Task: structure prediction
Amino acid sequence: MNPSVSIIMGSTSDLKVMEKAAEFLDSIAIPFEINALSAHRTPAEVEKFAREAAGRGIKVIIAGAGMAAHLPGVIAATTPLPVIGVPVKASLDGMDSLLAIVQMPPGIPVATVAIDGALNAGILAAQMIATGDPAIMEKLIAYKAGLKQKIVKANEELGAARYHYRTN
Amino acid sequence: MNPSVSIIMGSTSDLKVMEKAAEFLDSIAIPFEINALSAHRTPAEVEKFAREAAGRGIKVIIAGAGMAAHLPGVIAATTPLPVIGVPVKASLDGMDSLLAIVQMPPGIPVATVAIDGALNAGILAAQMIATGDPAIMEKLIAYKAGLKQKIVKANEELGAARYHYRTN
Amino acid sequence: MNPSVSIIMGSTSDLKVMEKAAEFLDSIAIPFEINALSAHRTPAEVEKFAREAAGRGIKVIIAGAGMAAHLPGVIAATTPLPVIGVPVKASLDGMDSLLAIVQMPPGIPVATVAIDGALNAGILAAQMIATGDPAIMEKLIAYKAGLKQKIVKANEELGAARYHYRTN
Amino acid sequence: MNPSVSIIMGSTSDLKVMEKAAEFLDSIAIPFEINALSAHRTPAEVEKFAREAAGRGIKVIIAGAGMAAHLPGVIAATTPLPVIGVPVKASLDGMDSLLAIVQMPPGIPVATVAIDGALNAGILAAQMIATGDPAIMEKLIAYKAGLKQKIVKANEELGAARYHYRTN
Amino acid sequence: MNPSVSIIMGSTSDLKVMEKAAEFLDSIAIPFEINALSAHRTPAEVEKFAREAAGRGIKVIIAGAGMAAHLPGVIAATTPLPVIGVPVKASLDGMDSLLAIVQMPPGIPVATVAIDGALNAGILAAQMIATGDPAIMEKLIAYKAGLKQKIVKANEELGAARYHYRTN
Amino acid sequence: MNPSVSIIMGSTSDLKVMEKAAEFLDSIAIPFEINALSAHRTPAEVEKFAREAAGRGIKVIIAGAGMAAHLPGVIAATTPLPVIGVPVKASLDGMDSLLAIVQMPPGIPVATVAIDGALNAGILAAQMIATGDPAIMEKLIAYKAGLKQKIVKANEELGAARYHYRTN
Amino acid sequence: MNPSVSIIMGSTSDLKVMEKAAEFLDSIAIPFEINALSAHRTPAEVEKFAREAAGRGIKVIIAGAGMAAHLPGVIAATTPLPVIGVPVKASLDGMDSLLAIVQMPPGIPVATVAIDGALNAGILAAQMIATGDPAIMEKLIAYKAGLKQKIVKANEELGAARYHYRTN
Amino acid sequence: MNPSVSIIMGSTSDLKVMEKAAEFLDSIAIPFEINALSAHRTPAEVEKFAREAAGRGIKVIIAGAGMAAHLPGVIAATTPLPVIGVPVKASLDGMDSLLAIVQMPPGIPVATVAIDGALNAGILAAQMIATGDPAIMEKLIAYKAGLKQKIVKANEELGAARYHYRTN
Result:
């Protein structure tokens, strides 16, 4: 089965952050691929990747990078596909990466998520595909319901602990 | 024809920024609606809007707000649709709005664009819908080609001017 | 006895910070409750909580959250009660959370304290209630006097140490 | 009738910002006073003011200042009353003033609102007093309803304009 | 005569800033060319430019761009020539552009100058070429001497004015 | 009469800011001199100035500069006299200049005042000299009393205006 | 012997930073005292201290504090003596403390040193006193010479190590 | 053989960062020297170094420093050689050092690299010299090809790992 989402990272050292996107896509059975390609060290490969992605059946690209993070914008410059950018924290608390990804000029958007926010990148990719795929939309609705259950349960556990504070 | 994209802004004073998204969608014939709803002043209306949007056939929501900009995140909390956030510059050069939109916690993404970047929000909405709609993909490819022509032409005009500098 | 103050946090992981507010309220015998509710993962519960709080006899709400911290503002949007916001440090040294809480638009204030400043949130809640409750005002005056004693005593202990430096 | 709220500003040049607090209090008939007192130029007067405020029947103090804004914290150090701090924008986009007001150490809270957010300071003062005064609570509920009406009406006006964008 | 320096800017709107580099090179008779090429709107042209520059006899590239300024880094990724980056102020006081240019990852340097510092980019290009060209070095030494004369003269003019202040 | 204070600025364009220091010193009859010397354009002159200042009877040096403001630190490196640094706002709201002046390494202090705070630099210079000169101390005490009178008078004028707000 | 310099810190937890000032003054035999006094927890004591310091023979005050650091400014408001402010790093990398100390309004200077820069505060205090005391000036000149010797020696040690790198 | 590149650091404690530049130059056989010289503690030595460097055959200077990092700018003020500045992270995440190095005023450029980016400083120095030395240009082209190989190989290793994620 061809991958629908392509996850790209600027360096294999970003894997620990970026695998959160992969794990989410895996959990809702969206096929994906994951590779390291650097806008700065392998520019020709990045250009080739971006030019060919749509033709290979990729629907959404997730790109993560740190510091002067050019990878998401460089890919977005060449592909008509939506590109999700993940600012990876490598210096300056990730502020350099965030600004280098989100502040794209008019004409070339990058859909930016939080610093190190790869899980949300995975969810966002699924939401994009779900605009044309009702089965994935169902899975997202179920995921959202699960988020609520988790906090409800955490709150119940907190309940036991909190009687220590409560005055009656 | 039902709107596919819903543009929401926190205040009608954001219209001047947000209408760039509307103009782009109009230019490629994606039907849309545009409204002002405040996460802080009309919270019940925002909640109702977010709960009902998918059922009304909306595919993507674009939400713009300034300062402690909660609107995009609050909508994303309730809808399974993808939400694009536009940080509107109202104070602190827009940095407060950018951080209040992009730094969403795990589980609830907002696809953030540049400060005052509503044109890119419109393009991104079209890219999302194009994942399931080849006709819109064609229009996006044509738009991208147009971007290139504009800068090529601007460069030619610059050419005349630049001989002033060139030493031969 | 009904709680007068309701402490809400966006995630149970914020408990370590937020329990400082609870401990203070406990120390001056103001009844309180403490729960985890997320503006993003349980929005309907947050809305219900905010709508009903005044009717249940709550007088002040303390809400803590990190990153794009929407919880205090979202609650303030629905309740007429005063809401105290505690920016919890989770990324960017807490600056994202601080701006997302304090920069509320005109009409919907959130009384913001320092990053991770939950103790001060507890004191501030007591000060608010004391505007209509002289007994609590007395306790606050006593607390303030205690603060002074602590630093006076610490200074005396420093006194012993400092002779090492003093030249006579 | 004695004032319930005392508005203090570090310099008469802050009046244009701070009068928004006064206008709100006036609009809901909470008696107030407004004065300029500088933590740096009239420290003894500030100390006397803070020491005597509770005894004069003041219930809430609103203090606004710019740059290294010490006024709210200095007042809070001496009075047991709740102190609302308004960071006034005078340099660095108001970031210096915001940090100098909100980052109070444990023990001495200042309830901080947005940069130049004096209207919200007025509302917050009313909310504090309303914890012990049901009549003021009623007025705040009416004010909140009015906020909603304003945005509903603005949206209707926008409605006329937006047909320009809508594709049908 | 072939150009030795190629000045590239992301948009013709950057010309007003970037022409300072051109004027300096013109003043010391270093042949140059100046063009607009966008990393985001004309990525293939940028790649071709960067790949061919050294072969055409270019010795130094000056690249200016604003916002998420990828142009200097993208060029540096493909050429072995030294690339000077000029952060152009377009938003956030130029901080986004500065970080997106200077924070390059290990292996691919961009020689960054001040925000809007195109004159310094021109001087730096000349200094680089002067490492292998004694005639240009002579011109730079003369330029440096001229800088000193300007401030000495300005000081003399100040001298007349300053007697107003001096107490004798 | 020999000058006791030497005011130096990095560029004559800083005169408008720096003359506030001169005016204050003039007002309390401390003899001074004022010159433009650039750490970057006239380094040898700065070095000579710093080496000779103490020998000429100068007691305090005030140095103002913008951007990467090295002038105060460079002078402090060579003279044993106290150096007061004035960050001049020229870019980035003056934050670059502030950090480049105040963050001096251990061993070489620069007494830094607020951005564009040249009046305070003048006062601080007088305070330093007053540690050994009781006559100047008297003048400073009188100046401080004057500051109080100004705000008292401004407050009285405000008094007339504020009855508009007061509810009685 | 009476102290000439008074070192004040907002909390005894700042001692580890502030004792660097004490050690320097001790090393050049300037008598000093060191105490903890909080602008927020012991405001009356701070006011009394500032009012009486000059009369007790104190010539310079060094005040260190963190977060919303009001202590140096509050002391400067009451005393005519020069006040040196040390921003202590407690949150936000010390940026809150730096801005709360350095950005004093016109009329009330605080001579600010680097974040945690207490050693420089001690040197600066000595430099101020040296404006009227030639013996201390001699010691400062000797200290400066010592700084140079340390780096010369460190460089020699580096010399041995660096041959590893040098190509000959 | 005479050194072509001179590496200077403000303190021997910067060696760990700065030796990356040395190692790169060593790897491509460009002769260099490395020394510690402080703009603040040994200003006369810095001035002498900068004045004599070109005459000794140095072609490029690399200068690294932290905090209020004046060393690169001070050297650039005196030499006509190109100066590369390395902001060393010592406080404020290196932002103070970055701004103190990159924001040089018109006329005196410093070629700034990333915070702690000494490897890139070494590469940049080689690129500068390569403008007049084809043999070094060859080595740089080989180095660039090596960068690509490293990421290609890392990606292959990632390939094995990534099948864990891929859905087929």
Remarks:
- Chain A has a mean pLDDT of 92.
